[in-house]
Structures are given as structure tokens and as C-alpha cells.
Write a structure and sequence with these properties.
With about 350 residues, this protein is α+β, with helices and mostly antiparallel strands. It contains six helices and 24 strands. It folds into three domains: about 100 residues, DNA Polymerase III, subunit A, domain 2 (DNA Polymerase III, Chain A, domain 2, Roll), CATH 3.10.150.10; about 120 residues, DNA Polymerase III, Chain A, domain 2, CATH 3.10.150.10; about 120 residues, DNA Polymerase III, Chain A, domain 2. Helix content is about 20%, strand content about 40%. Strands 13-10-11-12-24-23-22-17-20-19-18-21 form a twelve-stranded antiparallel β-sheet. Strands 8-4-1-2-3-16-15-14-9 form a nine-stranded antiparallel β-sheet. The chain is elongated and about 80 Å long.
């Protein structure tokens, strides 16, 4: 079926080597066995394979340029695709559209095996939530590789996903049906982003995560994704999570999102916004000033406990986390001047987000 073939080829094409030392690493490998078509690709850093059902008339294996294959499949409107490998090339047909692609030698295509020492079984939705909740908080810099990664480990009965760029940190906890041990694993954020894109289109419910021997893998409904892992240690982030709060504020998430949208539109390049909890008031005030644009103030009705408070934060950092909170209300916990702000869903411990204050 064209739809499954095109989706698998598109994912595989994104993971080929851009400037391969071997031409076959710039290709996707197609192999037919019994009633299955296997589509594989690798750039050595990550490897991908998808198995899709097909009517096989003759078994074989060949390597073709992934971009050309994807372009053909995305331009065909018929529901079924037929193809044949022969001396003249890889011939495809879909409806009234035909193409013949060059075949590359495939003998040097590397084989890869997935780690199976430690495994956890989740729903696809849970793994998607774990990745989406933290990816944005990782560092884009390669100076400290551990900050450019997603930290995954098991703790008690939870599987924990964490990312930080040293200015903010996001942590998501998921409780699998069958808790088991999972070693601390650092997955490069670029690779984790590719896995998320695959899982967002994955069919089926179950997703198995595996780690060991310097590799991290995910399996879901005929798809396997393998990434190298990073050596090194993730920062001991738990020591910076505020244990107590001088002030807690609970407000509607939508109100906070709208206030931050205004603040981002009016703020300077630093995205600085001031958060104030006035004395004896049941509100949170967001204010921003920009000499070139203007200024704005948003007052949000809130439940307030504790002391008056005022501090400045990056408005984008504050808004980034809202999509990871499922609850309709959020809680902001202020530990005091100069200390990080803790944000979570009201009444939930599944997601925690820490933001460092800005110098005013």
C-alpha cells in the first residue's frame, strides 16, 4: 500500500548519511522476504527499519537513493504501488505514473542489532508525552554533549525523561504497567527528535524502549529505531529543585498563556518579563517594557499563598512548558529571590519545570 510505503520511506530517507564515505549509506535498503518489505537506512549515528506487508512475487534486495524514492511515492495518488528490481534499475509504478531509479551496490550496507538487556513497554502515547515534554529544554550547543541530550532512567516505579540547557530544566515521569530497571541513558536530542517524529505517525499502541551496549532502541508495530548513546554524566539536577516555597501561585493555564503571548510580543531581544505577586492581592502580574515598542501589563486572577514576590524571567522559557502540562491550572512555586521558579500542573507531580531568574 502506497501510504505505508511512503511513510516508511520518508522516515528512512531522513536518516541516511548526507555526505557518505560509502555511496550505499546515502541510500535506503529495500529487501523483500515472504510477505514483508523491509526498508532500512542508517547514518551510523542512528539506524531505522520498518517492516510493511506486501505481496512478494520474487524475493530480493537492493539499495536506491532515498530522496528520489520518497519524491516518487509522495507524488503518486494511487493506493497501491508495484515495483521490480532488474538490470535496468528499480522500476516503480503507481497508477499512470512510472519511474526507474538507479540501483546502488548494497554489499557494504552495515548490519545492526538492537540492545535487549533492559526493556520497558509503554503505550506509544506515553513515550510521545515523555519526549515532547522535555525536548525543547535541551541545549542546542555541542560544547557540553550531556546538555544536548535527553536523560532517560528508571526510578522507583517511574520512567523519567529529563532535559536541561542549564537555564531551565524539564522533567516528565511516566508509570509503566510493569515497572523494571532501566539504566541511566543519554540520547542525543537530534536523535530523540527523529524518534518523536516517527512515533507521532506510528500505528499500534505498544512501544518498547531498550538500552544497553552504548545503544538506545525503540520498537513499535514493525518499526525499529536505534541510536547511539552518549558517555558522560547528566547534571545532578535534583539538588537545584526547590524543596520549599516562600510563595505559591495557582492560576489558569490559558490565562498564563495569553499573558505570556503579550509579553513576548512587546519584550526586547532578551524576552524579559517581570512576574509580581503584590502584597494582599489574589493575582499574578506580568509586566514588560520595551523602549522601542512600548509596554504592557497583564493581571491574572490567582490563588496565592505566602509572601509578596517579584522576579524577572525569560518569557519564552515560561511559555515553552505550558504544552507539557495537561491540567487546566498551573502552580508556580517561588523559593525566594535569586532562586529558580518551579512550575507544575496543579495537583500533579508527573511534570516539573524549573526556570532560572534573569538579572534585572
Amino acid at each position: 500500500m502506497r501510504e505505508k510505503f511512503e511513510r516508511a520511506a520518508r522516515h528512512a530517507s531522513r536518516m541516511v548519511s548526507k555526505h557518505p564515505s560509502l555511496p550505499v549509506l546515502g541510500c535506503v535498503l529495500l529487501e523483500t522476504k515472504k510477505s514483508t518489505l523491509s526498508i532500512r537506512s542508517t547514518n551510523i549515528d542512528i539506524s531505522f527499519e520498518a517492516l510493511i506487508p506486501a505481496k512478494i512475487e520474487r524475493e530480493g534486495i537492493m539499495a536506491v537513493q532515498g530522496g528520489a524514492l520518497t519524491s516518487f511515492l509522495s507524488g503518486v495518488t494511487s493506493t497501491a504501488i508495484s515495483f521490480e528490481g532488474k538490470p535496468g534499475g528499480f522500476a516503480l509504478q503507481g497508477g499512470n505514473t512510472r519511474a526507474t531509479l538507479k540501483i546502488f551496490p548494497h554489499d557494504d550496507f552495515p548490519s545492526f542489532t538492537a540492545p535487549r538487556e533492559y526493556t520497558h513497554t509503554f503505550s506509544v502515547a506515553e513515550v510521545v508525552a515523555g519526549l515532547k515534554s522535555v525536548l525543547y529544554a535541551s541545549s542546542p550547543s555541542s560544547v557540553r554533549p550531556e546538555l544536548g541530550s535527553i536523560y532517560i532512567f528508571s526510578e522507583n516505579s517511574s520512567m523519567v525523561f529529563v532535559a536541561t540547557d542549564s537555564f531551565r530544566l524539564a522533567e516528565k515521569r511516566i508509570v509503566p504497567h510493569k515497572p523494571s530497571s532501566f539504566p541511566p541513558t543519554l540520547v542525543p536530542v537530534k536523535n530523540a527528535s527523529e524518534l518523536l517524529r516517527i512515533l507521532l505517525e506510528a500505528e499500534g499502541d505498544a512501544c518498547v524502549l531498550s538500552s544497553g551496549e552504548g545503544q538506545f532502541a525503540a520498537f513499535a508495530n514493525g518499526m525499529s529505531f536505534i541510536s547511539r548513546t552518549l558517555e558522560g554524566s547528566f547534571p545532578d539536577y535534583k539538588q537545584i529543585i526547590p524543596k520549599e516555597a516562600e510563595t505559591t501561585v495557582t492560576a489558569l493555564k490559558d490565562d498564563m498563556a495569553k499573558a505570556l503571548q503579550l509579553a513576548s510580543a512587546l519584550s526586547e531581544k532578551s524576552n524579559q518579563v517581570s512576574l509580581t505577586v503584590p502584597e494582599k492581592e489574589r493575582e499574578l502580574v506580568l509586566s514588560v517594557k520595551n523602549a522601542e515598542v512600548g509596554e504592557g501589563v497583564s493581571r491574572i486572577q490567582a490563588s496565592v499563598n505566602g509572601k509578596p514576590f517579584e522576579a524577572s524571567f525569560n518569557a519564552r522559557y515560561l511559555s515553552d512548558c505550558l504544552g507539557a502540562i495537561n491540567e487546566s491550572s498551573i502552580t508556580l512555586s517561588f523559593a525566594g529571590a535569586g532562586k529558580p521558579l518551579l512550575i507544575s500542573g496543579a495537583g500533579s507531580a508527573g511534570f516539573r519545570y524549573i526556570v532560572m531568574p534573569m538579572n534585572r
